[in-house]
């Protein structure tokens, strides 16, 4: 199993060495960024069971914070209170992005700890919408619909000694790959620990979890915070890769894309968002190559989402796992059914 | 052609800036009376502005209430967070466009037809998508509704293209003038019809057998089923009614504004805001919530910043959920 | 009666809207005993459990556990003090394996901090191995060790109820509140559960029991409290309760009503 | 049986060889990024239609350099980030040597860094923001006028129209804010009082709050800068609220015929700055070309309201093709070089570029014509 993972990693790392088509790399980079975002959403949606539909807010905050820090800005916080910042190095901007996105996650976690289900969904949707409108209207800071343009690319080191510039696609590909692997490892550590079990407990049975002493609020806030910081990192990478950010980065449709990736791949599984992200990151390009209009592509997305909920309610990864269990280990044929939907 | 003829403006050169070469046509005489708009007493103008804002808000509130009631009915009775609500809104508007502009049907005939189509689409969505999800948790149905929303919106975009359409209305172009303020006949019509539909919905819920069964289902589904209420048909009726109200809002506002595929997104979000404001499942709450949101938006845009107009509702949601999570007029404790 | 007092409830009242579920209830739980709370359906037994463990707010009265007031504390804080409960309706983490269920129950016994987890410190891995050992020991104790790898939802009913007890035991209770643990079990299962209860008692855990199965109640309890319409109508040893005319009336009355309905 | 894969291989080889032979006859690709959906969809579609008409006409006449041209039109969804994505795709995947786009100033500004990155020239057909040609991007060739040019052309009219106090309502993007800035400065220079300066989101549809504010300011003229969709709604809503100020729209994306069709009587009395006057083709510099374009447009049964926008696509593609012809090859650097020397008879007038921006990195700017028309009695008039 370990060998398979290593082989996969080696393959992924080798791609820029033999892939000369820059467009393919571009698609892979964008897919990778979305996979990181989807993985972070999975921590909330899949492990704590809270359907956050404002997740793109953290992604966008990361993108804006990092861009603003690296471009510098001058804006009135209140009438008469001028905030000024000189351009900072990109890596510092990215760190700020992760931190501030994480802080926003903490705030949202604290705010919404007492609401669940439909209310949690609407609070998160509202949060993202308010942030989008601020980005749109605080023109002095964000340039509003004119977008933040000419965002510098990431550079590490100094020009005198050794400099690593992330202006070209292969470098960006490696950056995304490394951050994605890192995020995967962090999430795996988290969910296979006491904290992750507490999150799962919250998802599966909140009263029982509290009865054995799990402080669900604390772990919900932790999950929101880690998840937001990770989404912020994805947003920062995105901003310095495409080098332009506009308020549409907060559009609901991007949250929906992440949700589709997680749900299709398998929420609450480590590999789920990766599989879902690969499918829905590459599918648009395949459909485009097949000369299918983008509208049709979105219709296909919508229909797929409905079909997945009906026929693969747990997603692809658990379904494949169950299938393999049934076919390869007939000894444990008493394996549980794929669906454990409680009959209510 | 009467008048002065064309004037040429050219050769404007300043520094290294480019020269101006083209001719420019203009009409030099001003329309009579326009220069007479001399500055007058400021307070009077301010009062007029306030009155106009309030009138605008009142008119807007009617359609907001319509949208909110539809959504809150569906949530209250079915426990479904209906993401297709905005799509039914834009569907109503497109239905209106189709009847009036493509088929040439009379405006006042087209309106009920558009609403009817909305009712039918709602019933179809319920029958095809939601019926087999009975008893599934709220998140599962939400995902299905999001899928349906994306598919519907893009089918609309495919059928009608992304270019905004406008619908001719049969109302006189000059507005109804009420002293210092004025309102177009079309908006007034929208307001009156919206109020009538709200009243009809109240009557349906409170006076009819169907309404009684709906209320029973809202209170307690199991008991209602034991008492012989056909839950399936109640659900279909509820979803169809809620959808019809959304389609009505779209059909009414389509001729006032323009019709485009993503018009429902903001409508959906605002409907959520209204419903949260009034408390999930509360019809009077949604009605009042609709008007509160309209006033906040209009006054906020007029006196704070027009850009944050749409943010008002969402800020309100966050504040309300922090202070009183059940909304202003909740009837039952929150569900989730 | 030399044992120390574990839990003191005084004048406890619980109301839902206008409805009174429990009215000024007072009793004590002594260290090391098995105390049972009985009474007809709707008498307020589960409500009392819920108030003690922080799931509903008391309208009045006090609940003190070893000198600490439990009023206003959250359920998880109460669990931290060593007061752990089970639920009337079967309540496990359905999608998780039996072992994982117990591991979740061990939450209070582990010490990992989020930072240590994210950094992947060796102490975390060490503790995880230790926790797995403990979980297996608890499963052996309740007799579910053979099922460790199975998903909870695939267990038969009797074993599910054992799993609930295992999860509660994992939380290291000093006072264990069991809400109808044997309801729905067949007589053989009930008998073996009674043996388990004796073993739990042997660990020095005080047990507070709500149960309808009178054979079990009479067999395991040191003392019994009988509730009706939110009030305590009798308390004493099993023998005393069996003779108490009010208790008999309360139960007969209920059966009578049932027969009529 | 064993020969089957071999045969397939041969076939594949043959296909590759044939493809190589056909390369000479392969069409020359021209990338077009336009807002086909979203807030500016109407205008973007018109420009794309105009461009398609030019493509057809050029190919009918034998193409250029013995090859056909092929437009690859991508939808930038009226969104700057999408605009960058379309440029990325057109340049990296489709390998176009030259582009046209991206309608709105914001969209064009978004694409510009990509032009520098990949060294591909782009012809700008609509955008009006001054920033585009002064930022030192040598890959920009603009045929549309800047807001500053428009304002300058308009300057004498402040007095002639008797404007005393003016309000401004514009979309809050580079196009709207740039125009509001230039026109308000011009107004101040002419001694005109500037009242309120309101903005609106490009996607907004309800301006009642802004209009109530503008009405309270009591100006005699309202300058509006946005695309035709919002102008239509604005004229209607201004009428509803009995705004008495004269409305003047700038930017040339006002499609007066569409306003008449969709806003009806509410359009009467409004003035519009346009860059092509299809109602009076004889008045433009190259009337024959204008008449030909109007005929081809009507032949396609395109919306007549789109003519004032569609001509941009025609002029843009003709300019690009002239440059390809002059360059003698379809390569970015050669086309960029050749664009500086083109002289094209366009619908708007004669197209030629002058230098703007920092020395050494100049962008190219055309000096186009501007016309003011008025809608009266449901007709466009030149008086």
Brief summary:
The complex is a heterotetramer of chains A (344), B (336), C (261) and D (383). Chain C is α/β, with parallel strands linked by helices. Chain C folds into 2 domains: 1-82 and 173-261, 3-Layer(aba) Sandwich (Rossmann fold), CATH 3.40.50.300; 93-172, no CATH class.
Q: What labels describe this entry?
A:
heterotetramer, A: 344 residues, mainly alpha, two-stranded antiparallel sheet, two-stranded antiparallel ribbon, disordered C terminus, B: 336 residues, 11 helices, 64% helix, globular, disordered N terminus
How would you write the strand order of the largest sheet of chain D?
A: 2-1-3-4-5-14-13
Q: Please write the string of helix (H) and strand (E) elements of chain D.
A: HEHEHEHEHEHEHEHEHEHEHHHEEEEEE
CATH superfamily of the largest domain in chain D: Response regulator
Which two protein chains have the largest interface (Cβ within 8 Å of the partner's Cβ), and how many residues from each?
B-D, 66 and 74 residues
Number of strands of chain B: 2
Calculate Rg of chain B over CA atoms: 24 Å
Strand content bin of chain B: under 5%
What quaternary form is this? heterotetramer
The rounded distance between the terminal residues' Cα atoms of chain D is: 82 Å
What general outline of chain D do the C-alpha atoms trace? globular
CATH-defined architecture of the largest domain in chain D:
3-Layer(aba) Sandwich
Tally of DSSP helical segments of chain B: 11
Structural class by secondary-structure content of chain D: alpha/beta
Mean pLDDT of chain D: 88
**CATH class of the largest domain in chain D, please?**
Alpha Beta
User: Can you give the helix content of chain B as a percent range?
Assistant: 55-70%
Low-confidence stretches of chain B: 1-40, 331-336
């Amino acid at each position: 199993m370990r060998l398979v993972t290593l082989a996969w990693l080696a393959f992924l790392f080798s791609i820029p060495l033999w892939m000369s088509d820059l467009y393919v790399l571009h698609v892979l980079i964008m897919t990778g960024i979305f996979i990181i975002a989807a993985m972070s959403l999975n921590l909330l949606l899949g492990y704590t069971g809270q359907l956050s539909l404002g997740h793109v807010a953290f992604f966008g905050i990361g993108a804006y914070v990092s861009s603003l820090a690296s471009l510098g800005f001058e804006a009135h916080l209140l009438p008469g209170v001028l905030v000024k910042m000189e351009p900072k190095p990109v890596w510092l901007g990215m760190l700020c992005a992760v931190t501030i996105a994480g802080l926003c996650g903490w705030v949202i976690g604290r705010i919404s700890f007492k609401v669940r289900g439909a209310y949690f969904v609407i609070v998160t949707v509202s949060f993202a919408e308010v942030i989008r409108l601020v980005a749109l209207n605080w023109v002095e800071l964000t340039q509003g619909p004119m977008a933040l343009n000419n965002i510098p690319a990431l550079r590490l080191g100094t020009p005198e000694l050794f400099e690593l510039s992330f202006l070209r696609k292969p470098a960006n590909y490696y950056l995304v790959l490394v951050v994605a692997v890192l995020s995967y490892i962090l999430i795996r550590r988290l969910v296979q620990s006491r904290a992750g079990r507490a999150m799962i407990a919250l998802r599966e049975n909140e009263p029982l979890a509290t009865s054995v002493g799990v402080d669900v609020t604390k772990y919900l806030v932790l999950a929101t915070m880690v998840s937001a910081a990770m989404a912020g990192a994805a947003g920062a990478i995105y901003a310095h890769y495409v080098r332009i950010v506009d308020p549409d980065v907060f559009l609901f449709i991007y949250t929906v894309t992440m949700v589709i990736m997680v749900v299709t791949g398998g929420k609450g599984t480590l590999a789920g968002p990766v599989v879902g992200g690969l499918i829905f990151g590459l599918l648009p390009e395949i459909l485009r190559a097949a000369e299918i209009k983008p509208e049709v592509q979105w219709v296909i997305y919508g229909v797929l989402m409905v079909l997945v909920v009906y026929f693969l309610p747990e997603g692809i990864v658990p379904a494949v796992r169950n299938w393999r269990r049934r076919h390869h280990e007939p000894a444990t044929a008493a394996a549980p059914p794929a669906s454990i939907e409680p009959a209510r | 052609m009467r008048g002065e003829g064309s004037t040429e403006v050219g050769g404007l050169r300043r520094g290294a800036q480019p020269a101006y070469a083209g001719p420019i046509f203009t009409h030099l005489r001003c329309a009579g009376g326009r220069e007479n708009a001399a500055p007058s007493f400021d307070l009077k103008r301010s009062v007029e502005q306030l009155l106009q804002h309030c009138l605008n808000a009142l008119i807007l509130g009617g359609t907001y209430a319509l949208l909110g009631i539809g959504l809150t009915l569906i949530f209250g009775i079915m426990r479904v967070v209906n993401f297709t609500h905005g799509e039914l809104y834009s569907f109503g508007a497109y239905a209106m466009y189709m009847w009036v502009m493509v088929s040439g049907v009379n405006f006042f005939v087209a309106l009920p037809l558009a609403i009817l189509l909305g009712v039918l689409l709602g019933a179809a969505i319920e029958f095809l998508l939601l019926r087999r999800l009975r008893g599934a948790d709220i998140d599962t149905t939400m995902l299905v509704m999001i899928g349906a929303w994306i598919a519907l919106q893009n089918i609309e975009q495919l059928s009608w293209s992304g270019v905004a359409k406008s619908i001719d209305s049969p109302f006189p172009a000059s507005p109804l003038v009420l002293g210092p303020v004025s309102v177009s006949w079309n908006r007034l019509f929208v307001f009156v019809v919206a109020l009538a539909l709200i009243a009809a919905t109240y009557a349906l819920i409170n006076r009819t057998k169907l309404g009684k069964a709906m209320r029973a289902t809202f209170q307690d589904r199991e008991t209602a089923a034991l008492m012989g209420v056909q839950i399936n048909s109640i659900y279909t009726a509820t979803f169809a009614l809620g959808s019809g109200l959304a389609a009505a809002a779209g059909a009414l506002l389509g001729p006032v504004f323009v019709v485009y595929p993503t018009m429902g997104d903001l409508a959906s979000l605002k409907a959520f805001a209204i419903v949260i404001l009034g408390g999930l499942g509360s019809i009077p709450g949604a009605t009042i919530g609709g008007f509160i949101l309209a006033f906040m938006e209009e006054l906020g845009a007029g006196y704070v910043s027009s850009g944050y107009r749409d943010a008002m509702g969402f800020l309100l949601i966050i504040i309300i959920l922090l202070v009183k999570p059940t909304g202003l007029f909740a009837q039952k404790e929150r569900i989730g | 009666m030399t044992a120390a007092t574990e839990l003191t409830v005084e004048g406890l009242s619980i109301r839902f809207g206008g409805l009174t579920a429990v009215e000024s209830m007072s009793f004590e739980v002594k260290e090391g005993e098995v105390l049972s709370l009985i009474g007809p359906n709707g008498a307020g037994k589960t409500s009392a459990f819920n108030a003690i463990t922080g799931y509903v707010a008391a309208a009045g009265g006090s609940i003190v556990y070893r000198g600490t007031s439990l009023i206003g504390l959250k359920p998880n804080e109460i669990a931290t003090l060593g007061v752990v409960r089970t639920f009337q309706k079967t309540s496990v983490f359905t999608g998780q394996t039996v072992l994982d269920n117990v591991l979740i129950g061990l939450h209070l016994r582990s010490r990992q901090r989020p930072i240590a987890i994210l950094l992947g410190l060796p102490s975390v891995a060490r503790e995880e191995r230790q926790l797995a050992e403990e979980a297996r020991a608890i499963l052996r104790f309740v007799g579910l060790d053979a099922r460790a790898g199975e998903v909870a939802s695939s267990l038969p009913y009797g074993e599910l109820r054992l799993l609930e007890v295992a999860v509660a035991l994992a939380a290291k209770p000093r006072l264990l509140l069991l809400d109808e643990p044997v309801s729905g079990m067949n007589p053989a299962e009930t008998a073996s559960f009674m043996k388990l209860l004796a073993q739990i008692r042997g660990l020095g855990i005080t047990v507070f029991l709500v149960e309808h199965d009178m054979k079990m109640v009479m067999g395991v309890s040191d003392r019994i409290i009988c509730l009706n319409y939110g009030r305590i109508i009798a308390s004493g040893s099993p023998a005393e309760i069996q003779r108490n005319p009010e208790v008999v009336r309360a139960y007969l009355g209920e059966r009578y009503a049932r027969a009529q309905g | 049986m064993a020969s089957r894969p071999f045969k397939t291989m041969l076939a594949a080889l043959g296909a590759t060889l044939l493809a190589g032979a056909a390369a000479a006859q392969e069409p020359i690709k021209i990338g077009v990024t336009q807002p086909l959906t979203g807030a500016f969809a109407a205008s973007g579609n018109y420009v794309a239609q105009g461009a398609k008409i030019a493509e057809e006409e050029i190919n009918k006449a034998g193409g250029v350099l013995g090859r056909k041209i092929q437009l690859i039109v991508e939808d930038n969804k009226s969104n700057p980030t999408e605009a960058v994505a379309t440029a990325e795709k057109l340049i990296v995947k489709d390998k176009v040597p030259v582009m046209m786009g991206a309608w709105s100033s914001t969209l064009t500004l978004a694409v510009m860094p990509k032009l520098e990155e990949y060294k591909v020239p782009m012809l700008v057909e609509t955008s009006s923001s001054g920033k585009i040609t002064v930022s030192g991007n040598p890959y920009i060739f603009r045929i549309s006028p800047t807001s500053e040019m428009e304002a300058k052309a308009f300057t004498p009219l402040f007095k002639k129209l008797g404007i005393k106090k003016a309000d401004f309502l514009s979309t809050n993007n580079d196009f709207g804010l740039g125009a509001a800035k230039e026109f308000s400065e011009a107004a101040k220079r002419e001694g005109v009082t500037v009242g309120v300066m309101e903005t609106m989101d490009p996607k907004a549809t309800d301006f009642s709050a802004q209009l109530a504010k503008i009405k309270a300011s009591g100006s005699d003229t309202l300058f509006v800068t946005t695309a035709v969709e919002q102008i239509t709604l604005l004229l209607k809503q201004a009428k509803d609220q009995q705004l008495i100020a004269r409305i003047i729209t700038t930017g040339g994306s006002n499609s007066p015929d569409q306003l008449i069709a969709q806003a009806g009587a509410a359009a009467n009395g409004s003035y519009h700055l346009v860059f092509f006057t299809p109602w009076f083709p004889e008045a433009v510099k190259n009337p024959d070309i204008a008449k030909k374009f109007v005929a081809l447009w009507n032949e396609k049964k395109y919306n007549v309201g789109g003519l004032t926008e569609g001509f941009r696509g025609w002029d843009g593609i003709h300019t690009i093709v002239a440059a390809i012809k002059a360059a003698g090859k379809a390569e970015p650097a050669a086309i960029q070089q050749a664009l500086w020397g083109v002289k094209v008879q366009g619908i708007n007038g004669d197209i030629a570029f002058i230098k703007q921006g920092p020395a050494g990195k100049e962008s190219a700017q055309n000096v186009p014509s501007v016309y003011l028309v008025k809608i009266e009695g449901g007709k466009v008039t030149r008086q």
